[in-house]
Records
---
Amino acid sequence: MEFKSEINDDVCDASVDGELTIYHVNDFKKALEKSIKHASTIKLDLSNVSEIDTSCFQLLMQARTSCLENEKEFELVSISPAIREVMDIFGLERHFGNFDNMAAN
């Protein structure tokens, strides 16, 4: 997993490449927490995620909830087919938005 982020004008544009599995959950959590701490808007691009498991999906949901509770914005700007598959299986679209018109890799 590679997490990249850049903060401009209180907006964090972040992206993840590779796998998001239990083996990466601690690093992913630290990176998300840092982004949330230093920005009021988080825009996360997951279009290059090759695999995701429930531990990292729970972390995404927790990050979104934390942002909402602290009056911050959390947005998934793009998702990969692997992310889409998990969202479809577990009915998570209601938490993150509709990605039907979004081009995924």
---
Amino acid sequence: MKESDRYLKIVEWSEVDQKYIGSCPELFGGGCDGNDEVKVYKELCKIVDEWIEIYKQDGEPLPEPKLLKKYSGKFVMRVDPELHQALAIRAYRAKESLNNYCVGVLREDAAVYGVKSKSVTAKLPRGKPRPLPQLKYPLPQKRKKQS
């Protein structure tokens, strides 16, 4: 495995630019672009290799690759009370725990970006696996302050 294989390379279509944009956020801020997805990826791989050489020539340590990082599966998220309430109500209506409901929302959104999960089911508190709901989750409207 080449050293550059350890780094996340992203090639995505830009509606604004009407072309593919390639980036490697762990190593550099810029990127490359073009009309052919495969060519953009190949160019991006060359640029990543060049950046690794620059780090080495400058005597700088390479950033830790996100692809190799071990994640615990837990993180704390703060949200406004109205969103917390709306999610709790929707979870209750779906007969799911708030945690499982939020995992479903996050998993559905991550699927848009091609992120794959080990499981396609959520375990309910009763231990019965079932497919995650394929629902849209609109955010609650903000209430206007009364004067």
